[in-house]
Design a protein that fits this description.
It contains 4 helices and 5 strands, in the order H-H-E-E-H-E-E-H-E. It has about 180 residues and is α+β, with helices and mostly antiparallel strands. The chain has 2 domains: about 70 residues; about 90 residues, GMP Synthetase, Chain A, domain 3, CATH 3.30.300. The strands form 2 sheets. It has a 3-stranded mixed β-sheet with strand order 3-4-5, covered by helices on one side. Strands 1-2 form a two-stranded antiparallel ribbon. Helix 1 packs antiparallel against helix 2 and helix 3 packs across helix 4. The two termini are about 35 Å apart.
Length: about 180
């Protein structure tokens, strides 16, 4: 059984890798083009308005440096892992300073289990983050407010029982369903 991911990878990884690859390819083509022009002792050719510039001109060097920096920043952003998606728990029964963590996926599963156990709920959807847990519940109960209050209380009680160092804020939204 594989362990769950504790670090979230940013969603920007694939677009950043694509853009960085394009910039690297354009840089390689530019380098090849510039080497060909420098060895032949000719100015830039093929670009309107810049034919009078040489490869050593300040605007050309500035653009090359800018493109290189953008590529480097995009590569770093693509490879840098996201922040940890865990919440720390205290284990007082094993010693005063013993701690462990629970993933936000685990927090979401606890909230979903409580929603499924609550009377009147038909469906549930949970979005868990380290600081907050949002629960969307479809209910057939005549009063959605009661289901909201009961479910939020039960989830908060479960989180308190776990001994979380910083208990996430729980919000419950109900949607009226006609039948089960």
């Amino acid at each position: 059984m594989s362990s769950p991911k504790i670090r979230r990878r940013p969603d920007r990884r694939i677009p950043a890798l694509i853009v960085a690859t394009v910039i690297v390819v354009l840089g390689a083509l530019g380098l090849w083009w510039s080497l060909a022009a420098v060895t032949a002792q000719q100015p830039l050719a093929g670009l309107d308005g810049v034919e009078g510039l040489t490869w050593g001109a300040v605007p050309v060097v500035a653009l090359a440096v800018l493109a290189g920096l953008i590529g480097l920043v995009l590569l770093v952003l693509a490879l840098k892992p996201g922040r940890a998606s865990v919440v720390e728990m205290k284990l007082d029964e094993f010693g005063p300073r013993r701690t462990t963590v629970i993933t936000t996926r685990g927090l979401g599963r606890i909230a979903a289990a409580e929603a499924d156990r609550t009377d009147g709920t038909v469906s549930s959807r949970v979005d868990a983050r380290p600081g907050r847990v949002q629960v969307g519940v479809g209910t057939v109960a005549p009063s959605g407010r009661e289901v909201q209050q009961v479910l939020a209380g039960r989830i908060q009680e479960r989180y308190t029982g776990l001994g979380l160092r910083h208990s996430p804020r729980v919000t419950v939204r109900t949607t009226k369903k006609e039948k089960r």
